[in-house]
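Exercise (ungraded).
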Amino acid sequence: MIIVMKKNATNEQIERVVSWIKSVGYMAHPSSGVERTIIGAVGDNRGKEHLKVIESLTGVEKIIPILKPYKLASREAKEGNTVIRVGDVEIGGTGFVVMAGPCSIESREQMMESAFIAKKGGADIIRGGAYKPRTSPYSFQGMEEEGLKLLKEAGEKTGMPVITEVLNTSEVDIVEEYADILQIGARNVQNFALLKKVGKAKKPVLLKRGMMTTIEELLMSAEYIISSGNDDVILCERGIRTFETATRNTLDISAVPVLKALTHLPVIIDPSHAAGHWRYIQPLTRGALAVGADGVMIEVHPEPEKAVSDGGQSLKPEKFYRLMDEVRKLEQFMRHEMKVSQ
Amino acid sequence: MIIVMKKNATNEQIERVVSWIKSVGYMAHPSSGVERTIIGAVGDNRGKEHLKVIESLTGVEKIIPILKPYKLASREAKEGNTVIRVGDVEIGGTGFVVMAGPCSIESREQMMESAFIAKKGGADIIRGGAYKPRTSPYSFQGMEEEGLKLLKEAGEKTGMPVITEVLNTSEVDIVEEYADILQIGARNVQNFALLKKVGKAKKPVLLKRGMMTTIEELLMSAEYIISSGNDDVILCERGIRTFETATRNTLDISAVPVLKALTHLPVIIDPSHAAGHWRYIQPLTRGALAVGADGVMIEVHPEPEKAVSDGGQSLKPEKFYRLMDEVRKLEQFMRHEMKVSQ
Amino acid sequence: MIIVMKKNATNEQIERVVSWIKSVGYMAHPSSGVERTIIGAVGDNRGKEHLKVIESLTGVEKIIPILKPYKLASREAKEGNTVIRVGDVEIGGTGFVVMAGPCSIESREQMMESAFIAKKGGADIIRGGAYKPRTSPYSFQGMEEEGLKLLKEAGEKTGMPVITEVLNTSEVDIVEEYADILQIGARNVQNFALLKKVGKAKKPVLLKRGMMTTIEELLMSAEYIISSGNDDVILCERGIRTFETATRNTLDISAVPVLKALTHLPVIIDPSHAAGHWRYIQPLTRGALAVGADGVMIEVHPEPEKAVSDGGQSLKPEKFYRLMDEVRKLEQFMRHEMKVSQ
Amino acid sequence: MIIVMKKNATNEQIERVVSWIKSVGYMAHPSSGVERTIIGAVGDNRGKEHLKVIESLTGVEKIIPILKPYKLASREAKEGNTVIRVGDVEIGGTGFVVMAGPCSIESREQMMESAFIAKKGGADIIRGGAYKPRTSPYSFQGMEEEGLKLLKEAGEKTGMPVITEVLNTSEVDIVEEYADILQIGARNVQNFALLKKVGKAKKPVLLKRGMMTTIEELLMSAEYIISSGNDDVILCERGIRTFETATRNTLDISAVPVLKALTHLPVIIDPSHAAGHWRYIQPLTRGALAVGADGVMIEVHPEPEKAVSDGGQSLKPEKFYRLMDEVRKLEQFMRHEMKVSQ
């Protein structure tokens, strides 16, 4: 951490900061420039909380942290990429993983139909929501355990792993019983109690970035899960909130290469929630593949116009099949001709 | 809801939309302009979910909602302002309510000292965090139940009501046992399970706006609480996330008059978290009062430089006393000379 | 335009709005719903300014515009895509156009070297800045006319068209004399005097989106140029400003398919300015191609560590050659195997 | 400037950075921590451009600037506040300055009427737009020189100074001829050619913050004006662009105390453009006064419903008079009872 003193800071003030740094177990390296003195505080993290309050000492202009606040999620903590195996599927390996299915599980028929569409299109994992986080208390809140059962059945019938969202600590156990991957939604990315709880689960966790979560905060949330005991975390960029309203959120596609540089965890993209309109799923999925993401999560619905949630951003079966053809061709090309493994 | 058709939409497409609207129990009012046809859909909310998916019908350009999605929180739902009584304190009435205390409860001594500072300064309610939502899993996570006990004791010793944050559904009961007001933090503003749970509590709820939450979404979250049975909701603006980094967040002070126009609920401001620096608390508290807020929530600490969280944004006792003198004078002036009741 | 009346609006207030609409030459279509009355105002744009002020009439809650405010830039105004020819290069046609060169023109040697690097790599157009918009008055402001001469010479020696930025109305004529395409930078996207002036130029204009410009505003700025007489406008997404600081700006890659849906104009991407770091140029260029952009603008410098501006985001020659190999292969694949023409 | 090396940076890489720093005339202070080495670069600003490119040297993780990039605008550059005198009005002194008038000058009658309303209400300065920056090329673009003449006449008849916006370098001379203060609008805050030009004018400049401009960038733009020779710069916060759409922009009221800490220049607020609705002008003006701004700029129009631009955010005369009564009372109270001079 670096402490920048004010231009007119007195020697006494500088001394006080140096003493403080030492008193919390750090070494202090002051260096005086033409205009002001800066002081490096070097040490481990024991006194970090106390170091921050140096900002309130007289004569201090600001403090600048140097070290990244996450450790286990950091690329420096681990050689190579984390590859997560779920059934026959590898996430973070050489393939491009497609998770597909409806936003909400609405009925047995709709779930089974969606699952067979996902399978026919060549998806790897089936998604479907049983507990739904809805902005309005008057909107459909999900089929809950009954939905989980339908999802599990759909997975068994198609021979594919399934993923679903868990909203609350009290539901983690039951969701873990039915699902192969636990999803933490964007609105819960800093629900720390929930992060700790899924950190104790035995199943992988897909962690969605919040609409206003920085990349550093996303990695801190992953750190909560890993430091609670669960190494299998998949990160998911799903659009951030900006001033632009032409799309529902703004897909931060640069987050893929940035995360790849900072962490060993797999990174996927959710173009359905980012754009909020089925029209943009095809180009954004191509973009996700080209930019180096490990996969995508896509909403597919047998009859989007009858969906009880997010129908406007779900693909119809025919469009999904065409998209998947394209995705698999492009994946092959990139792997063989461009030596790019996702 | 208004459906805007594409410029080149065919009569057949328009007919299909009209049929759809009728099939979900609404009336359809098409009207053809020079360039395109728009169709009004009039009715109650039963078919609302299905109406939304009209966006995926061919020929539709976009849909525009007309009605506000919240009802109970709306000013139209209730004449007059909601005034919440906690002990001798009225929130949302004619007075300007000051909630003061440390960010985290750290020890018996620190809590009692802070409480007496709050009392001496003339605050109305004592705040203090027992369960702390921290971005880093390595930061101090709060004293939990022991902290709740200290907070309650501080309230009893000073004769003041107390407020503290609840993070998780499983802790609502215990927090309700000790606290007079339950606080929902910015990161949990869309933790819907938690909102429903505090909606069943018998104590008032202070709901903080999230860094990424629109005013409409904040009111929808209040609607979750009210529709679960708890009418006593206090809204709190605490800064939104923007591109500006000179302050920790950007205090959206206009949210006060905007909320006053839209809802009957009390609205307070948290200048400490918005600005992230004690230096700005005084001017922003004056601004909060002048703009018409019902109160503020301020961090005070006997020794900010030793605080285990957010020390840099806590006021020292002397500064707090001076601020309170100013606040009370300005409050009197505005009430008597400008006929402004907060 | 739709006028939404307040819930408790009186018949008299509704009548007054209807009269107002008629008085400015529109037709009024009131329709009364369960909760409130809405009034459609149908007509051409003559009275538009006056319609907006309906918002200040008593009883009006809000007004909602229906028509897009741009016309000539709209896809509805023109069948097919605008293809702009500059020398042998087509922008907006079937190829993926690469514009490459240094941020600033610094010397004859550096400009010529950069141009030959661009040519060797297979770029289509040479870029280079002679007038530089710099945040600090103390930074290098560009070689001005001398730079323009060097750029022109570089274009002639390599047989490639050249593009450069114009900052001020008084420099449009001289820049037009030397350059093949005039660039309007992000900070000038709403410099309306400049837009009108380049709208009278005989050369194509590349219009960069501002850091906080909505897609609609960008199209309105294009409308300024087209309505002044210049049809040849190329749009460029270069990152918008958000809360995320891991990249300099946030590349809004969805802007490509969104713009392709709304306008007939070509759309390119500038990954160098968006990301602010050379490391991310390769993946983002691949993403730009896959998502359907018509080209990219990339900073290349013979010795980035000696560049006087934006050195950190410039590619070294070897990295540029490798990127270009990849780009041309991917372009071929997409055109032939996926039937995607950029 | 501080250079943070990567965790695994070699001694050779560290040496290379140190040599580079020295080669551009700075001193290098390396200091090795537990995890990584950081290097302080101390010196004056001669080599600053070259220092930045250190970011592209191998082994470097990031660079962190320490010094503020502006000098003349900085509080450290000048003791006391800059007080600007225009006629009998002092801006930045002990009074709260109100600039009032219509958004656009539309006719002789409307301008004169507005000026007398401003005078009757007790405003200090008359505002009015002759050159209008409009998002749409089809909107009214202003009366230009004829408008300037009407504004000047209005100032003479009422004995008040006048302020108007200048959009383009070619119009600075004529605007300076008629106006007492030159206004640079939000969209031109980084129109550097225009900043340099008004920096050579003999009249004070009111510089509006852009919707996307950080506080540091605003001060850099002020630095352009001051370093060109004009010390009389007034800063104006008028709302920044965020995700919130309940107001047109988000008034960043904290910018007032932040700017007061960083610069000696006067700071005013424009609540009309920030909120975009007349309803919020009164509370925000009170807030501006309480938070310590030096004044406000308010839109007033004799008949807002007939205004050709921004009618919805203009105050009617009666509302303006009531607001001014309140402002003057509150100003007196704050000065005498709270010892706060604006």
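Further reading is listed at the end of the chapter. For now, observe: The first strand of chain A starts at residue 2 and ends at 5. The domain at 75-337 of chain A is CATH 3.20.20.70 (TIM Barrel).
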